[in-house]
Design a protein that fits this description.
The protein is of the alpha+beta class and about 220 residues long. It has helices at about 110-145, 205-210, 220-225, and strands spanning about 5-20, 40-50, 55-60, 65-75, 80-85, 90-95, 100-110, 160, 165. The model is unreliable at about 220-225 (pLDDT under 50).
Length: about 220
């Protein structure tokens, strides 16, 4: 996984001054006023990069890009990068070589805005590292928790109540039908047939008024006539 990680650039500042600093004699912190600020020991370009969770402060030559010194940082704020007590433009960083040797040097920016960008780039990187660590931790805790079995067991049933109707096995609920005005209508009788009222017989008056038409003569009789 480490071989697949790529290096990204977090910040680039073209002008940075490097100072040799006296050893710290107390726990009160470093003071830039103790350095020879008018006579820096080296001047070049600063790049802040990241590879995985580790950030790197790289001091490079302005023209050739050759690496002058490098400071790996695995925590910020921390011992690898410290601010001074009397200025926001100067920092103390711990540089390391490939053999494990380390030394503390001072760096400073002429522009206060460059110092602000340098500080923010480190803060943003380690804020991201903290978030990634918390997400990974929560994911591992979720994998170790027992999973809930929400499936039905053999022979297990459930009963659903929908409004005032209760569904039961073997039959369906009969809804109540309401007509206009809120009156309840009786359901049809069992069997599903509706009785039709009988047709009344014709009255005697209708029979008396009925006139029988004359018989129709055949065609032969009509010709003889």
């Amino acid at each position: 996984a480490a071989e697949l990680e790529y290096e990204s650039v977090l910040c680039v500042k073209p002008d940075v001054n490097v100072y040799r600093i006296p050893p710290r004699t107390s726990n009160r912190g470093y003071r830039a006023s103790d350095w020879k600020l008018d006579h820096p020991d080296w001047t070049g370009r600063l790049r802040v990069t990241s590879k995985g969770k580790t950030a790197y402060i790289k001091l490079e030559d302005k023209v050739s890009g050759e690496l002058f010194a490098q400071a790996p940082i695995d925590q910020y704020p921390g011992i690898a990068v410290e601010t001074v007590t009397d200025s926001s433009r100067y920092f103390v960083i711990r540089i390391q070589d490939g053999t494990g040797r380390s030394a503390f040097i001072g760096i400073g920016f002429t522009d206060r805005g460059d110092a602000f960008d340098f500080n923010v780039s480190l803060q943003d990187h380690f804020k991201w590292v903290k978030q990634e660590t918390e997400i990974s931790k929560e994911s591992q805790e979720a994998d170790t928790r027992p999973k809930l079995d929400l499936g039905f067991k053999e022979g297990q049933t459930i009963k659903l109540n929908i409004g005032n109707m209760t569904t039961k096995k073997g039959g369906a609920a009969k809804p109540r039908v309401s007509g206009s005005g809120g009156l309840s209508l009786l359901p049809p009788p069992p069997g599903g047939k509706i009785a039709v009222p009988p047709i009344p017989p014709p009255s005697s008056t209708a029979i008396a008024n009925h006139v029988t038409p004359p018989p129709v003569l055949k065609s032969s009789n009509m010709s003889s006539a």
